[in-house]
Amino acid sequence: MLKKITLLALSLLMIAPLFAQKRDNAVIAFYNLENLFDTENDPLINDEQFLPDGDYQWTEERYQRKLENMSKVISLIAKEYGGPVAIGVSEVENRRVLEDLVATDNLKPFNLGIVHYDSPDRRGVDVALLYQKDRFRVIHSYPYRLITEDTNFRTRDQILVTGIIDEIDTVNIIVNHWPSKLGGEKRSMPKRIAAAELSKHISDSLMHANPAAKVLIMGDLNDNPNAKSIVEYLQAKGKVKDVGVNQLFNPMYKLYMDGIWSYVYRDEPNVIDQIIISYGLLNAQKGFKYKDARIFRASFLLTKSGSFEGIPLRTFAGGNYLGGYSDHLPVFLILDLIK
To answer: 3-state DSSP call for residue 8?
Structure first.
């Protein structure tokens, strides 16, 4: 009898940290890390610029500073809410850079896990999901390849990660980095439309199987919330009243219309970093429910003076090393636990 009681006590001690981490809210975030490359040459990708003897003179010192900067930002996102339970990231070279990132002093306390798959992108950049292992349990993940009419085109996969927050609620996170506008709007838009159709296919499959499914489509979409790819093809609604069962709501639409940006290109403010959610998360009856969408805009992330004053302080600008952060600002959603 004593042995059974001892074993029970030990098992309770083992799961106590998990339950201690439970909160009344959960933050889900996304951050484009802008070229997080290591210093080693990978012959399978085009990483020559990011080598010690490359265009950017990408030394170990610069790499370590980049890790420090990125980890600082991630550690401060929604800190008052306990930080992101899960954060999608883009423009990462490989799993090694993610392992180096989560091992930094800034991120060690978060005990972050990694979901990453190598994609066929010619530049060698991938998307991934980092998650607090004490609060988020991954039960499934899968990379979806984006195929377009251009058979020579190679881009990032879209990763689906299904997991359980605080052993309470299941969410499905689709991490994206849609094709850029390289070559102009007319030439590049069909590729982003194809990306939108793939995201919609994945989310539709989840919602048709369960209309209450909680789905988050996140990423650098390289289009604003009012773009054809998002409005017509992903069919994400910008107003809550327009969202029906098995449909998507884009909380970043209002931020964009209000002039709140996450990215600036040629002095034009954009919200190309987005987190779009399903009807099931918007109108949840139990578990976690959508509350608010925000852009993390700490003052240290912005250039203090000169012609680029007020826009994100990058690692490089015009080929010059600045030692900054990223050309994107992080975005995040706050989810409240229904009681």
So the answer is: helix
Domain annotation covers residue 284: yes
Q: Is 28 helix (H, G, I), strand (E, B) or coil?
A: strand
Site of tokens 């952060």: 325
Judged against a pLDDT cut of 50, whether residue 14 lies above it is answered with no
5 in a domain, yes or no?
no
The pLDDT confidence band at residue 266, using thresholds 50, 70 and 90, is: confident
335, 277 in Cβ contact below 8 A?
no
* Alpha carbon distance 271, 222 (integer Å): 9
Strands across the sheet with 25-36, in order?
Answer: 112-116, 126-132, 84-92, 25-36, 331-337, 288-295
Q: Which domain holds residue 93?
A: 23-337
Q: What is the tally of structural domains in the chain?
A: 1
pLDDT at 70 over 80: yes
CATH of the domain at 303: 3.60.10.10
Cα–Cα distance between 46 and 182 in angstroms, integer?
17
CA distance 193 to 210: 25
Strand partners, 334: 27, 292
The predicted pLDDT at position 221 comes to 98
225 is a domain residue:
yes
pTM above 0.90? yes
CA separation for the pair 4, 221 (Å, rounded): 54
Exposed e or buried b per residue across 23-48, where buried means at least 16 C-beta atoms within 10 angstroms of its C-beta: eebbbbbbbbbbbbbbbeebeebebe
pLDDT of residue 22: 60
